């Protein structure tokens, strides 16, 4: 029987993997097309002040834009798969290096942000669902709506004003790698991560509340109550555990969303992450860098979803054993 | 108690009434929804008449009068060029709302088309369209919008287009899911067995029945579009000066955080309030449309 | 007479301003079964939930008293008290076995939960007990099943597990709320036997809720008949059958479909064949999380429907009945086979006009009267839709006129055309569906469980209508049902399906008199007999 | 969090400077980014370099001679200079660097346009032959680090964009993309070892953030200062020193004379009369800049007095009427990369409205801006010209009918003659007069409408003995912490 179990899980994962690969291929096509959609000559625009015929020719050859379209496409896909995303128009160094330089900062922010979001949303969402219709539920609902409605950059601006300028508790900007000094890292990551976390937490609170509500209305919860179980057992073993499955998806999506959405927060907090890199790249028309960043984030999105699927298979016997 | 003969009539028991009239009544019975509707209405009215009721010209600079705190003459104070912030917030309503409405209209139009076609036709077309949507979905919203701006250059039109494009997959998914669930409803099956054409089925049965979901999604998307516009403008890539938009005003306020709180607080509050109103209204509508929530509301209303 | 296990007095439930249940009183003694019967929405579930303190509707207010044998008052009791009682003194089995079990927990966990909570058993002891319970409720290979999950069980098996859970702590009272409604007749019969056996062995008192008087007759010693939140009659089961005092009870009894009670009106002499189906084969590809597989829904089925007669299609749930109907109406593409109506081949039809013409000859009425009408269209619009599609009436006034005719034909007032579906009762809606199906003047009407969701009294009226229409219009019916009693009442010929195959296809009279196939026999045996079991024994 | 700066800066005792943006790359010949030059100022040397009065002083060249015909310059190089990697600096490096710029037609090639030939008679001598007397050759060669002497191996390996190797007072230690660049002292620098062990340049574009960091002791120096905060900051002398000095930079407007009706001098003059220079100065710099109707500021030796225009709407209207033009739409192109232009544009739009001129503002990024400028896609544009030393640098390029930056299409043969003459005039007084004369014509005809000269504003830790320079060069080689 166990061979069969493993077999079905493997089949499930194989399907998800194949699906991710298809979507990733689509993503690559879109990313590849980006630079070709630019009206006018991307190289001319990218060079700007640095334009000289020689520089132009050099960049043209270096970027491969002089070759036939299909050849460019396959070479782009080919090198992208091997981790070569071309060379930045702006500083001439490999895009991959640029991105990897920035990834730790963004990852720190995203992960800590997600943790903050979870710390807010899990208790708030469960509490509010279990107290549906009461005043505390209304408070959670309205404040989560509020959290969803506040522009994150505005919140960041307010946070800097309060915690940095007025109270002087935390630094308003800068990044210290975790490996260098964990304490300093934490001090620096706090404000931006809280900004990110509040917004993401507000969104997740709403999903968690809905998920818990849905589970709480399920037949098996009534069965559990009919057994005379303690409320804590019903809440955690029967409600929260089942509600965790959709929450897992949401947490995954949120992590991906944070990864791709921290641009403004990174700009506000001068955080040297991928978001700011993209922002600068957009200003500088550094198309290879934009392409690379978009591809990286989209690929991370797919990877996170894949991981969520794997976790699903671990948590849910219906998938594990079907 | 066994022998009480009730007056037996031939009337069969009536199921509980669930009409659209009742939906409206339920909506109006929720004070939060009513308040958000009033806020939205006000915002829309301001969007139309803003330029006429604004006390000052929105681009009227008066450097000598710059950075004045809120006062009787300038309710929301003045900005770094001495322009009246109250007037600018009023007039910016139109720009911000226009961006939101146009981009959501783009997303709704494209998403509805893709979603309904995919959900109704099914088969390989569904497969292909949904994979395309999945691909679009894999891009984070703001990043994709930025990429589009990088291609087309910043500006009002680009902003609307970019936001429209990035929200299309959501509408496509919602429309497809609702279309799928409606098209397996027996009343659609009946129409098929009667030989009714696809046009009639789509127009008379499917669209009206997915409209509710789409209205909710539209309301929520308007909220997100407003935020996206603000974010793009905040990055200096959205609405361009001197045209005021709430996000652009926050962009301008960045340098004055310590000195002139009113420059960032009022446009920020305007965004927050409008987005909140769209979200709450959408939420209220969903509560009414969702049968489970609805019975709860009805029960509470009768208490 | 021993002391009642539960003694309910003047119980009432209010939700908001609505009085859902009023003045319910009953006692249940050890070893006895109280049956509660009544149509949907009459307050049966609310009554028992209120009496046991398990009501979970926000804003529900319970009045009256519900006393256990040990003197515990359950109405208004504190949560601690209730928790002590639930699962230990009172066990519950709910209607839908597919949602009543937690999909993420092993069966062992779900069965032993209450043992650990109430009896403080160790894990090992609880497991041994769970094993006994699974054996007692007749689950094969209980040892292996204990570590399994609910989705690995069939519906009937899940309901057995539910019963095992309910009985885990040897409760004095078992509450069964429509425990068999979602199951096949054959499985239903097994569950009824199971509960009776367990009750005999353990002396448990049972409250059994059902809308089906036949089932109640099988299990109950005493019966309460409910209507709109109140009991209209309460008496021992034999008295209810033999000397019903209330007109509603009499109506319920009369409308109850029973084998051997009625036969269809005579078929026309030597009717010609209308529809011939040959070797029909339908397959579905279903995608699940773990992959695709093929479901062979209909496997080599052949039959003929003659003009003016009714062919019954019976079989358990999932046997492929609806799929046959779907293939004939173009909803599902067949994999193989032919079907000819008159001289037209159905499956080879190509081109819009040809298929449209075909759709006029066969129309269909679905099971659920609520969802087969678009809630956004008036009755008039719904009935006019086929008229419009096939251009069967001249203009607006012509259509209105025809709609009125059709409404009259199905026995509804003509001003119903302006009503919306939600303003109609279930029976009225089903009449509207029938009127709509008749609008194209079909030669064959497919009725897919068209009366199954109606209350028995309403069902009887709709069946009468169908019989009248066949007599007046000479339409042929393909009558799909799982209730053999109505099949006997309606059909001239019967096709029994099982797992997509035809197992028996014969004239109705012969089939009911002398079923050949083992499966048909089982189906017939499982139908509750006319007399209550208590009277028979 | 005082003292944290040292945590961030690496070695203790180092200096942390916040600049307002990240360099695009670190190749001095290729970059055009001021942020890059702020860093490279400390990494590279030029043959000669300006002192605080912007007069050229020996640097890599310890002396030079000019031939009597004014056409041959001989530079004697220092013989004790090495690159950061230890390799010796020789005349070949000078040849390589200049030829790279000239042959590659890099953006600074125009500064070397007078050069006919460069040779190296020996390892420590460089001879430059020019086609005509070039009094501004020294300022061209040493005016800024765009003419830095680079190392060929560094260029060939491609490392120069991220790991430049120079001869300057500091060597590049590390570069954290998006965050900072750290330099360490070059103990063997020809001008003596710097007094601070290291300099870390952090990139903080948000001015308020930078100020907060300076006040909090996280950084020691910054020029990322919003003008509007300058007034408030001068009161904070306890925690920071604010340095402010007038610069030679200027900001200007120009109208496209290849288009109607801007080819009419009266229309241009009308606009010159309509704009409110003081309001623009106030809004863009909060009074820290000096309004000016010509390019050159009062403190410069090249200064010429000029105040023809005053804000006079009646006069402006009269000029427009005279030119016979009515309601106009004006496409004003500024750049989002230079926020002051966006601010000024909004005031200009407001100023011109009473004249019936509808201003449509476009603010593309600078790359696009340049492109549009070069293709003449504008009615009016605003920009600044930064880091000026010799008047020839800008007047010739912008107003000679054949000038490289004459995007507005100004052509006046008298001005052309004056420019050609001034370019080769070796007598300083005569040159000064010539430039004064031609600048007056340019302003009268409103080829450019000059607006103001901004100040260089920087702030630093009071313990630091640092001084602001008018050419915006940020030199840390001589600074030290007071304690
Ligand atoms: N959650 C609820 N909120 C409000 N009203 C409810 C709720 N649940 C049930 N009701 C109402 O209470 C009445 C009795 O419901 P109940 O579930 O007891 O009926 P029932 O006899 O068990 O019907 P069925 O045979 O369909 O299960 C119905 O009119 C129903 O509309
Ligand atoms: N659209 C479909 N896709 C996949 N499988 C289907 C589909 N429709 C029916 N099936 C499968 O085909 C088989 C026959 O289903 P069908 O609906 O014909 O049964 P039925 O006899 O009508 O049952 P019931 O009495 O429950 O209505 C079932 O196993 C069902 O799961
Ligand atoms: Mg019930
Ligand atoms: Mg069926
Ligand atoms: Ni710090």
Automatic annotation (TrEMBL), chain A:
The chain crosses the membrane at residues 17-38, 107-130, 151-172, 184-204, 243-269, 289-315. It is found in: Cell membrane. GO terms for cellular component: plasma membrane. Its main location: membrane. Residues 103-312 form the ABC transmembrane type-1 domain. One of its GO terms (biological process) is transmembrane transport. Keywords: Cell membrane, Membrane, Transmembrane, Transmembrane helix, Transport. It holds the Pfam family BPD_transp_1. InterPro entries: BPD_transp_1_N, MetI-like, MetI-like_sf. It is a multi-pass membrane protein. Belongs to the binding-protein-dependent transport system permease family. This is Peptide/nickel transport system permease protein. It comes from Stackebrandtia endophytica. The lineage of its organism: Bacteria, Bacillati, Actinomycetota, Actinomycetes, Glycomycetales.
TrEMBL record, chain B:
The chain crosses the membrane at residues 32-54, 99-120, 132-152, 214-239, 259-282. InterPro entries: BP-dependent_transpt_permease, MetI-like, MetI-like_sf, OppC_N. It is a multi-pass membrane protein. GO terms for biological process: transmembrane transport. Residues 93-282 form the ABC transmembrane type-1 domain. Pfam families: BPD_transp_1, OppC_N. The keyword Hydrolase does not apply. Its main location: membrane. GO terms for cellular component: plasma membrane. It is found in: Cell membrane. It comes from the Bacteria. Keywords: Cell membrane, Membrane, Transmembrane, Transmembrane helix, Transport. Belongs to the binding-protein-dependent transport system permease family. PANTHER family: OLIGOPEPTIDE TRANSPORT SYSTEM PERMEASE PROTEIN APPC (PTHR43386), PEPTIDE ABC TRANSPORTER PERMEASE PROTEIN (PTHR43386:SF25). This is Peptide/nickel transport system permease protein. It comes from Stackebrandtia endophytica. The lineage of its organism: Bacteria, Bacillati, Actinomycetota, Actinomycetes, Glycomycetales.
UniProtKB/TrEMBL annotation, chain C:
Residues 6-253, 277-524 form the ABC transporter domain. Keywords: ATP-binding, Cell membrane, Membrane, Nucleotide-binding, Transport. The keyword Membrane applies. GO terms for molecular function: ATP binding; ATP hydrolysis activity. InterPro entries: AAA+_ATPase, ABC_Ni/Peptide_Import, ABC_transporter-like_ATP-bd, ABC_transporter-like_CS, Oligopep_ABC_C, P-loop_NTPase. The keyword NAD does not apply. It is found in: Cell membrane. It is a peripheral membrane protein. GO terms for biological process: peptide transport. GO terms for cellular component: plasma membrane. Pfam families: ABC_tran, oligo_HPY. Belongs to the ABC transporter superfamily. NCBIfam families: PRK10419.1, PRK11308.1. This is Peptide/nickel transport system ATP-binding protein.
């Amino acid at each position: 029987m166990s061979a069969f179990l493993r077999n079905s899980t493997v089949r499930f994962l194989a399907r998800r993997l194949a699906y991710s690969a298809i979507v990733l291929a689509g993503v690559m096509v879109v990313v590849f097309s980006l630079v070709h959609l630019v009206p006018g000559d991307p190289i001319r625009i990218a060079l700007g002040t640095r334009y000289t015929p020689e520089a132009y020719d050099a960049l043209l050859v270096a970027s491969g834009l002089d070759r036939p379209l299909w050849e460019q496409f396959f070479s782009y896909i080919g090198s992208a798969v091997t981790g070569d995303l071309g060379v930045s128009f702006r500083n001439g160094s490999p895009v991959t290096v640029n991105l990897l330089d920035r990834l730790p900062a963004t990852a720190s922010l995203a992960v800590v942000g997600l943790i903050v979001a979870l710390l807010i949303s899990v208790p708030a969402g469960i509490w509010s669902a279990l107290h549906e219709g009461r005043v505390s539920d209304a408070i959670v609902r309205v404040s989560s709506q509020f959290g969803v409605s506040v522009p994150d950059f505005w919140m960041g601006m307010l946070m800097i004003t309060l915690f940095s300028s007025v109270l002087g508790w935390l630094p308003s900007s800068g990044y210290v790698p975790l490996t260098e000094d964990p304490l300093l890292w934490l001090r620096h990551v706090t404000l931006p991560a809280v900004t990110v976390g509040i917004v993401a937490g507000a969104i997740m609170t709403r999903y968690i509340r809905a998920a818990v509500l849905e589970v709480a209305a399920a037949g098996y919860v009534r069965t559990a109550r009919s057994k005379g179980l303690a409320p804590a057992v019903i809440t955690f073993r029967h409600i929260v555990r089942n509600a965790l499955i959709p929450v897992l998806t949401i947490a995954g999506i949120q992590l991906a969303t944070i990864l791709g959405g921290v641009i403004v927060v990174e700009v506000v907090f001068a955080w040297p992450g991928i978001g700011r890199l993209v922002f600068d790249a957009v200003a500088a028309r550094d198309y290879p860098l934009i392409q690379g960043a978009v591809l990286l984030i989209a690929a991370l999105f797919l990877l996170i979803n894949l991981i969520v699927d794997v976790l699903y298979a671990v948590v849910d016997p219906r998938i594990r054993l079907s | 108690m066994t022998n009480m003969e009730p007056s037996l009539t031939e009337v069969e028991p009536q199921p509980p009434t669930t009409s659209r009239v009742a939906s409206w009544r339920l909506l109006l019975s929720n004070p939060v929804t009513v308040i958000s509707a009033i806020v939205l209405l006000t915002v829309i009215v301001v969007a139309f008449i803003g330029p006429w009721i604004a006390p000052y010209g929105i681009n009227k600079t008066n450097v000598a009068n710059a950075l004045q705190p809120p006062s009787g003459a300038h309710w929301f104070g003045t900005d770094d060029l001495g322009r009246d912030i109250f007037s600018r917030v009023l007039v910016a309503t139109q720009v911000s709302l226009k961006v939101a409405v146009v981009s959501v209209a783009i997303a709704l139009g494209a998403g509805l088309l893709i979603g309904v076609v995919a959900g109704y036709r099914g088969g390989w077309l569904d497969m292909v369209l949904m994979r395309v949507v999945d691909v679009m979905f894999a891009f984070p919203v703001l990043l994709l919008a930025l990429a589009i701006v990088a291609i087309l250059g910043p500006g009002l039109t680009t902003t609307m287009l970019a936001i429209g494009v990035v929200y299309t997959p959501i509408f496509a998914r919602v429309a497809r899911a609702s279309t799928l669930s409606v098209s397996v409803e027996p009343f659609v099956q009946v129409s098929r067995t009667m030989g009714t054409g696809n046009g009639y089925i789509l127009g008379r049965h499917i669209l009206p029945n997915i409209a509710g979901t789409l209205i909710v999604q539209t309301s929520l998307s308007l909220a997100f579009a407003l935020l996206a516009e603000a974010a793009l403008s905040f990055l200096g890539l959205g609405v361009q000066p001197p045209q005021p938009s709430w996000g652009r005003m926050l962009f301008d306020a960045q340098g004055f955080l310590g000195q002139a709180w009113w420059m960032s607080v009022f446009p920020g509050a305007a965004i927050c309030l409008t987005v909140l109103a769209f979200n709450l209204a959408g939420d209220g509508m969903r509560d009414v449309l969702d049968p489970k929530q609805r019975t709860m509301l009805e029960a509470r209303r009768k208490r | 007479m021993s002391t009642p296990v539960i003694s309910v007095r003047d119980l009432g439930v209010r939700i908001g301003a609505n009085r859902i249940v009023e003045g319910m009183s009953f006692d249940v003694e050890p070893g006895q079964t109280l049956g509660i019967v009544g149509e949907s929405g009459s307050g049966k579930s609310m009554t028992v939930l209120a009496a046991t303190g398990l009501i979970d509707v926000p804003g529900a207010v319970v009045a009256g008293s519900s006393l256990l044998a040990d003197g515990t008052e359950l109405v208004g009791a504190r949560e601690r008290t209730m928790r002590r009682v639930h699962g230990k003194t009172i066990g519950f089995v709910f209607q839908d076995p597919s949602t009543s079990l937690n999909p993420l927990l092993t069966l062992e966990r779900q069965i032993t939960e209450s043992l650990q909570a109430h009896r403080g058993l160790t894990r090992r002891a609880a497991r041994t007990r769970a094993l006994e319970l699974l054996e007692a409720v007749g689950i094969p290979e209980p040892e292996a099943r204990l570590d399994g999950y609910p989705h690995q069980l069939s519906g009937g098996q899940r309901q057995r597990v539910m019963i095992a859970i309910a009985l885990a702590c040897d409760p004095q009272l078992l509450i069964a709320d429509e425990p068999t409604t979602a199951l096949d007749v054959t499985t239903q019969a097994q569950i009824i036997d199971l509960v009776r056996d367990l009750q005999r062995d353990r002396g448990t008192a049972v409250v059994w809720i059902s809308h089906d008087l036949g089932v109640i007759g099988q299990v109950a010693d005493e019966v309460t008949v409910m209507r709109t939140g109140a009991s209209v009659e309460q008496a021992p089961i034999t008295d209810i059958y033999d000397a019903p005092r209330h007109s509603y009870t009499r109506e319920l009894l009369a409308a109850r479909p029973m084998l051997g009670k009625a036969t269809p009106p005579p078929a026309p002499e030597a009717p010609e064949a209308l529809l011939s189906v040959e070797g029909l084969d339908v397959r579905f590809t279903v995608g699940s999380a773990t992959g695709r597989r093929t479901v062979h829904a209909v496997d080599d089925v052949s039959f003929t429907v003659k003009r003016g007669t009714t062919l019954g299609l019976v079989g358990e749930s999932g046997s492929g009945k609806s799929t046959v109907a779907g293939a004939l109406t173009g909803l599902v593409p067949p994999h193989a086979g032919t079907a000819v109506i008159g001289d037209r081949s159905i499956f080879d039809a190509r081109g819009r006009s040809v298929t449209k013409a075909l759709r006029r000859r066969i129309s269909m009425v679905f099971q659920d009267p609520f969802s087969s009408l678009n809630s956004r269209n008036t009755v008039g619009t719904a009935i006019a839709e086929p008229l419009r599609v096939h251009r069967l009436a001249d203009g607006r006034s012509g259509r209105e006129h025809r709609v009125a005719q059709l409404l009259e034909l199905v026995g509804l007032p003509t001003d119903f055309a302006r009503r919306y579906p939600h303003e109609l009762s279930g029976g009225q809606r089903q009449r509207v569906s029938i009127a709509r199906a008749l609008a194209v003047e079909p030669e064959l009407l497919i009725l897919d469980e068209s009366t199954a969701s109606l209350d028995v009294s309403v069902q009887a009226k709709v069946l009468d209508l169908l019989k009248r229409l066949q007599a007046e219009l000479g339409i042929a019916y393909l009558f799909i049902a799982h209730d053999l009693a109505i099949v006997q009442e309606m059909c001239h010929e019967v096709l029994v399906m099982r797992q997509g195959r035809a197992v028996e296809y014969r004239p109705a009279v012969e089939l009911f008199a002398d079923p050949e196939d083992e499966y048909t026999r089982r189906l017939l045996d499982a139908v509750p007999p006319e007399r209550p079991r208590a009277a028979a024994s | 969090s005082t003292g944290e700066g040292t945590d961030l800066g690496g070695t203790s005792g180092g200096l942390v400077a916040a600049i307002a943006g990240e360099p695009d790359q670190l190749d001095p010949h290729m970059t055009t980014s001021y942020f890059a030059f702020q860093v490279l100022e400390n990494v590279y040397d030029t043959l000669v370099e300006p002192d605080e009065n912007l007069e050229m002083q020996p640097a890599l060249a310890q002396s030079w001679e000019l031939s009597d015909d004014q056409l041959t310059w001989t530079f004697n190089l220092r013989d004790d200079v090495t690159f950061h990697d230890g390799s010796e600096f020789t005349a070949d490096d000078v040849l390589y660097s200049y030829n790279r710029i000239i042959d590659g037609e890099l953006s600074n090639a125009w500064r070397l346009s007078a050069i006919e030939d460069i040779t190296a008679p020996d390892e420590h001598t460089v001879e430059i032959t020019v086609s005509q007397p070039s009094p501004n050759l020294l300022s061209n060669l040493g005016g800024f680090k765009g003419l830095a002497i680079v190392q060929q191996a560094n260029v060939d390996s491609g490392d120069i964009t991220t790991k430049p190797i120079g001869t300057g007072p500091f060597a590049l230690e590390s570069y954290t993309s998006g965050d900072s660049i750290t330099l360490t002292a070059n103990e063997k620098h020809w001008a003596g070892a710097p007094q601070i062990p290291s300099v870390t340049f952090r990139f903080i574009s948000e001015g308020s953030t930078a100020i907060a960091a300076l006040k909090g002791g996280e950084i020691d120096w910054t020029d990322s200062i919003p003008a509007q905060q300058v007034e408030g900051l001068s009161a904070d002398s306890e925690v920071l020193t604010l340095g402010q000095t007038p610069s030679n930079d200027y900001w200007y407007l120009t109208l496209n004379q290849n288009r109607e009706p801007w080819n009419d001098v009266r229309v241009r003059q009308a606009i010159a009369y309509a704009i409110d220079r003081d309001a623009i100065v106030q809004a863009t710099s909060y009074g820290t800049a000096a309004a000016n109707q010509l390019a050159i500021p009062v403190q410069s030796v090249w200064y010429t007095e000029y105040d023809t225009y005053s804000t006079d709407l009646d006069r402006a209207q009269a000029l427009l009427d005279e030119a016979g033009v009515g309601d106009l739409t004006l496409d004003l192109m500024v750049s989002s990369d230079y926020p002051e232009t966006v601010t000024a544009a909004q005031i200009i739009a407001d100023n011109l409205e009473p004249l019936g001129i509808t201003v449509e503002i476009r603010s593309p990024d600078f790359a696009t801006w340049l492109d549009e400028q070069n293709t003449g896609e504008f009615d009016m544009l605003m920009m600044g010209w930064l880091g000026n030393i010799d008047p020839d640098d800008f007047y010739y390029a912008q107003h000679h009918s054949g000038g490289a930056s004459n995007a507005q299409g100004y052509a006046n043969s008298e001005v052309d003659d004056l420019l050609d003459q001034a370019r080769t005039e070796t007598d300083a007084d005569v040159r000064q007069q010539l430039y004064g004369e031609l600048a007056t014509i340019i302003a009268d005809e409103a080829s450019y409408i000059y607006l103001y000269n901004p100040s260089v504003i920087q702030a630093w830790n009071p313990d630091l003995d640092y001084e602001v320079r008018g050419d915006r060069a940020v030199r840390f080689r001589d600074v030290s912490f007071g304690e």
